[in-house]
Amino acid sequence: MADTNTRISTIVGENDVVLFMKGTPLFPQCGFSSRAIAILDHCGVAYESVDVLQDMEVRQGIKTYSDWPTIPQLYVKGEFLGGSDIMMEMFEAGELQQLLDEKGVAKAES
Fold first, then answer.
1. Which InterPro entries match (predicted)?
2. Which of 22, 28, 34, 106 makes the best surface tag, with the fewest CB within 10 Å?
3. How many domains does the chain have?
4. Is 90 helix (H, G, I), strand (E, B) or coil?
5. Among 110, 108, 98, which Cα is nearest to 16's?
6. Looking at residue 7, which CATH number applies to its domain?
7. Which pLDDT belongs to residue 109?
8. What are the strands, taking DSSP E only, across the chain?
């Protein structure tokens, strides 16, 4: 488990925005992951995604790492924000875009 935590910590630390999800941005494997991708794409930020279906250790380890039971999980500048419901609430209130701007997150390349 220590190795998995180290791997997760490295991924979170090396990327401004990381989404641990089921599937990939092009082929999300659940509705919640699909919604999370749509929100991030709408915000126009660069992000890294991690397909937890490809790595069972990460799939279980991320739940322990964040103390959050569900996937997807969003991290911004090393800080855990929550899952797709929290992302949606923040997005609808304008808080997610504001946070991304305040944190100086890089915009996605067009």
1. Glutaredoxin (IPR002109), GRX_PICOT-like (IPR033658), Monothiol_GRX (IPR014434), Monothiol_GRX-rel (IPR004480), Thioredoxin-like_sf (IPR036249)
2. 106
3. 1
4. helix
5. 108
6. 3.40.30.10
7. 84
8. 17-21, 48-51, 73-76, 79-82
